[in-house]
Amino acid sequence: MALRKLPHPEEAALRPSRRIRGRDPAERTSRVCVGVITGAQGVHGAVRVKSFTANPEDIAGYGPVENESGDWCFELQLIGVAKGVLIARIAGVEDRDQAAALRGIRLYLTRAALPDTAADEYYHADLLGLEAVLGDGTPVGRVRAIHDFGAGDTLELARPGAPPVMVPFTRSVVPVVDPAAGRLVLAPPPGLLDDGEL
To answer: What is the rounded distance in angstroms from the CA atom of residue 35 to the CA atom of residue 47?
Structure first.
């Protein structure tokens, strides 16, 4: 299975991995967060952009991006790269003060602008908020975040009345992913969920 990463736990990102393409199914929108403006670059209005796409430069190739509220739509013109961020120009942003004022703005694309996922491939936004249950229907928790610590994607499950648990996002541990139904099914190996709560 493969992930199309949509950013950070509270945001939605776009990066393929072995299993995922990054809220509660009822809260899903037709937009996906693909990056964030991290600050100004230089004195001529350029901005620094942290991209959540598989290939960072692709953030400018999908078309115009929007801010979180959707009331500002603009194109990113990439002009460079620096230590984990892209350097971009935005029409109408002419000086450092204007660029600095944009810090923290999340960048969204319409879902239709993104590539379709392959079979058994998901965007992080498709997984965040899904209910996690065991094969017999016993609730375990909800997907709160997706992490990649280098050995593959891991789901962080928030559990009521119990500490969060990390679950490898592999076909053997998560054999069923059903975003349309708002759930995924776990087949955890012995000891993975042991804490006396289940």
So the answer is: 12
**Considering the entire predicted model, what is its pTM?**
0.68
Ranges of CATH 2.40.30.60 domains, the chain: 2-113
Query: What is 129-186's CATH topology?
Result: SH3 type barrels. (2.30.30)
What topology is assigned to 2-113 in CATH? Elongation Factor Tu (Ef-tu); domain 3 (2.40.30)
Give the CA distances from residue 98 to residues 41, 48, 159, 168, in Å, rounded to whole numbers and listed in that order.
Answer: 11, 13, 42, 43
Q: What is the pLDDT of residues 126-165, one digit of tens each?
A: 898 999 999 999 999 999 999 888 788 899 999 988 899 9
Bridge partners of residue 31, in order along the sequence: 110
Q: Give the closest residue to 88 by CA, choosing from 113, 59, 111, 62.
A: 59
